[in-house]
Specification:
The structure is a single chain. The chain is 0% helix and 50% strand. The chain is mostly beta strands. It folds into 2 domains: 86 residues, no CATH class; 49 residues, no CATH class. The strands form 3 sheets. It has a 5-stranded antiparallel β-sheet, with no helix packed on it. It has a 3-stranded antiparallel β-sheet with strand order 5-4-10, with no helix packed on it.
Amino acid sequence: MSKKPDTENFEGNATLYVAQDGLYEVRGAVNFPLADGKMALRVNALYSVFDGSYDNAISGQALGGWDTKGVAAALHFTPNDTTDFTLRLWYSDDESEPRPSYYWGQAVPGRNTTLPLLAGAVGLRLGVNQTGAPLPASIRYPSAARPRDHLGRRD
């Protein structure tokens, strides 16, 4: 929820973030007092884009990135000491790539070696074999994603 509009003070702010892996984010807000302290309008906006830190080793597609745009406006009205109205409108457009994760499936004979789980993997699903018995503690599966370095190159 955004900050309530202030009927007394004009204010504004903006923030810019730039980081590795194509992360760019701009945020801003502005507050306008209106109607002699009885009304105010506050507008917030956000644009955030991130290329992701991983590439899918099979398809080559990016993993973990996003593209987000949003704007919100709030109109606050206080006609007297006992009445207070706030009308809020907002819009957002969010696109997200799949997050890197591993699936541990059915054990395969001869592949029971240590699984190198990626540091950035955020999901982990555990399967069971056909008999319903738990899987061994370590299973070797090929890497599904490779992390990129700070210049966007794969290791």
